[in-house]
Amino acid sequence: MTRKQGLIASAIASLLLLVAMYPAEQRMGDTGGPGIITYELVGSQDRADEIFGEWGDKGQDAARQSLWIDFAYLVAYGIFFTLALAATRDLARKRSWRRMASVGRVVVPFGALSAGFDALENTCLLLTLGGAGSALPVLATVFAACKFLLLAITVGYLLTGLAMRLLGPGGDVPAESKPAA
Predict the structure, then answer these.
(1) Is the sign of the CA dihedral 129, 47, 58, 23 positive or negative?
(2) How buried is residue 26: exposed, middle or buried, by Cβ count under 10 Å (0-12/13-18/19+)?
(3) Mean pLDDT score, 136-155
């Protein structure tokens, strides 16, 4: 499989899995309680207990379903972002965008790392739903914060690479659109 095929396959899988998670998110919302992202950033056992009270059994079941589907989703987006980051770094090397290539050496693993933090977060949240350990909501929040930070850097790097690509081969305005001297 080529990198392009991997990007396409993982993008399609990510979108399909997001669609698969939507009904669970709707059921959580139907309870009047918060969505899954609020639960990911729960912060404490007391807040988790409040959320569980708002959700009731239906919302908690929906959260479990969403978290289990999220394990497949994190694999798909982890692959997609890792491949996209590598492609952007390679383009930066090819076009001699030294700073982008240099940053790329560091950020390429961020796709996989964010997925890893997501898996740890999901595990803590599922165990919290099962009634295990009062420190787990804090750990889930830490893992979620790490995931979101890495994803923000990932998206920023990819958007910067896209903007540079659109500007032209050297990262400048393409020659045909420069005013004649």
Answers:
(1) negative
(2) exposed
(3) 97
